[in-house]
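User: Some background: our group keeps a shared notebook of sequences we're curious about, and every so often someone picks one and asks for a predicted structure to add to the entry. Today it's my turn. The entry only has the sequence so far, pasted here. Could you supply the structure so I can complete it?
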Amino acid sequence: MQLKSQKKITLNGKKMRVGIVSARFNEKITNGLTRSALAGLKECGVKEKNICVVSVPGAMEIPYTLQKLAASKKYDCLVAIGCVIRGETPHFDYVCKMAQEGILRVSQDYKLPIGFGILTLENVGQAAERLHLGSDAVKAAVELALLK
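Assistant: Of course. Here's the predicted structure to add to the notebook entry:
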């Protein structure tokens, strides 16, 4: 079996409706990720009027909110934006696991692509190099939505 060569994919999201759930915890970082996500949607041609951004307290609240958006059946894809930074306790591990598993469950239950734009960092300094991941998460969700 031969693999086809990877070529740049043009994502046409002109008719898409996209929901973004962005956590406020570590807000300077999540605001950067959200700006990156919005820039990615613009690159894909998604109209501003077809984008809904919902702000939630933290990463733990993202899956519940994604579930509400998915249940509305208004969106072609969703995106989760957040940032969890490791501290001195195991809290980091629980938050990351619960957020990731919740997002996966919503995606599978509703058969809806969800871009994963949650940074899991050891320290704040690692964030600057990863803010582009908001755009990457959006583009992954749009690409999967186009497969439908």
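Suggested note for the entry: Helices lie at 27-43, 62-72, 91-110, 133-147. The domain at 19-147 is CATH 3.40.50.960 (Rossmann fold).
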